[in-house]
Amino acid sequence: MKGGGLRAYALIYLLFLYAPILLLPIFAFNSGTVIAFPLKGFTTDWFVQMAGNAAMRRALTNSLIIATSSAILATCLGIFAARATTRFSFPGKGPITGLIMLPLVMPEIIISMSLLVVLLGLGVKLNLLTVIMGHTLLCMPYAVVILTTAFNSLDRSLEEAAYDLGESKWNAFRLVILPLVMPGIISSLLMSFTISLDEFIIAFFLAGNEPTLPTFIYSQLRFPKQIPPIMALGTVLVLMSVLLLTVAEYFRRRGVAKTGGTDSGGFL
């Protein structure tokens, strides 16, 4: 009885969590303009309208630029931070690591407002670059967590063997360490890209007149006729997010297996 109750609770919880997402494709292919049951019929017109919307394409382009740039910056900085914290001991290591991880526990609204006040105080014009800065700050902790796991899984004897063979520290890092942690790097890139692509609050505060995809979707919710194309767009975004997270988890597990480490959990 106890086991059955737990299974029922888990099923109800999963339905509550994922049912709204499962409804997206249902209404995206519904010919009715009202998001309600009963359904009227099957259509792909909303996907056609989505593809033909110039403002939506501009917002998508902005989001792709921001997500790609943020993912690359967060991963590069994450490599330096993960390498430093796993390989070296230095004064203030704990507090510095804590500051890097702080965005994980700090509300995004606080981060966004703080960045807005600082940037406006410095006279910086709000544009895509300011959003990239904010998203890099947000993605950094996730990149550091993934890359720290990758670096911790390395066998240090491989690095020492490279030194014994006469390689410099840079060559040992480039030829030995980076190839071994490459699955973690790819996983970090994909995870950071997904987080940046879906992020709304920082983009809302820092984008200025440049719309991103989440802010564009928010602005269109006021117009009932725009809801069906938004549902179609939401379906595409969900599929893209699931695909990217699946690929990221694949490379994370591949990295753990490649380095002979222990899999202590992941995204999926």
TrEMBL record:
SUPFAM superfamilies: MetI-like. Signal peptide: none annotated. This is Spermidine/putrescine transport system permease protein. PROSITE patterns: ABC_TM1 (PS50928). Residues 60-248 form the ABC transmembrane type-1 domain. GO terms for biological process: transmembrane transport. GO terms for cellular component: plasma membrane. The chain crosses the membrane at residues 12-39, 59-84, 96-122, 128-154, 175-207, 227-248. Pfam families: BPD_transp_1 (PF00528). Its main location: membrane. The lineage of its organism: Bacteria, Pseudomonadati, Pseudomonadota, Alphaproteobacteria, Rhodobacterales. Belongs to the binding-protein-dependent transport system permease family. CysTW subfamily. InterPro entries: Bact_Polyamine_Transport (IPR051789), MetI-like (IPR000515), MetI-like_sf (IPR035906). It is found in: Cell membrane. It comes from the Bacteria.
